[in-house]
Amino acid sequence: MDVMGRAPMPTVGEVVWVPKVAPLTPSALAQVAYKELKPPTPTLVLSPPNTRPELVGMPLWLSIPAATWAPVTANASAGGVSVTATATPASVMWSMGDGGSVTCHGPGTPFPSDPSAHPPLLSPTCGYTYPRPSTTLQGASFPVTATVDWQVAWSGTGNSGGTFPNLRTSSGTQVQVTEVQALVTGVSS
Questions:
Q1: Bridge-partner residues for 146, per DSSP?
Q2: CA trace torsion 160, 165, 166, 170 (10° rounding)
Q3: Where do the structural domains in the chain lie, given as residue ranges?
Q4: For 59-109, how does the pLDDT look when each residue is reduced to its tens digit (9 = 90+)?
Q5: Which residues partner with 162 through β-bridges?
Q6: Each residue's pLDDT tens digit, 97-152
Q7: Read out DSSP for 123-150?
Q8: What is the C-alpha to C-alpha distance for residues 50 and 150, in angstroms, rounded to an integer?
């Protein structure tokens, strides 16, 4: 080092050692692609919608848009090596805020918007029924969170491939649950 803190420049004819850079392997490049994966945050679709109170004992349909339930990929390449990392949605775990939860292995089924469809009372794929109201809680609602579990695999040059730890995306909302009381005023005989 000279007095200015700079490394001396090699003179003509001087041998300078340059460390050899190891070639990038498919698995090392797959790490780059893995870090680039950006699965979407789920949009929660509830029926009845969370803008209206849910009723104790009435089934709630749970889903996320099917368009977001699709594999997400990221690619990386360098020096003749290329890889693709793919995150595939495997399940969605709904935490219902009352201590209950449900895990669904698909996006769920949205409630039909056509009233003539006569849908079943229970969701055919993903639903929940609250056993008690949320009226005693602060805010009078249950915090609902949906967490999508994404399985990640990669494939690359030379039939290389493998897996990575799963990724998770989540979002939440609030659901008010009320109780309806029935009063019998007369009985016919």
A1: 94, 171
A2: -140
A3: 26-176
A4: 999 999 999 999 999 999 988 899 999 999 999 999 999 999 999 999 999
A5: 154
A6: 999 999 999 999 988 887 677 777 889 999 999 999 998 888 889 999 999 999 99
A7: -SS-EEE-SS-STTSGGGSEEEEEEEEE
A8: 26
